[in-house]
Amino acid sequence: MTTFSVSAVVLLGILLIVFIRNKSMRLGYSILAILFGFFLAKTSAAAPLQSFIDQVANTINGIVK
Description:
With about 60 residues, this protein is mainly α. The protein contains three helices and no strands.
């Protein structure tokens, strides 16, 4: 199994933010976004992010009902 370093994920994240802010999202940058998500899921940050997203979804679900 290949691991991906957190620094590479940070680099991909920074590139993604730059491209989004410049409003220049094209196919290549969309692929960058997909790779960022894929590699982020392999880091130790994946579990806390998933927990946070679950809590936000549950909160929104509670407000809507």
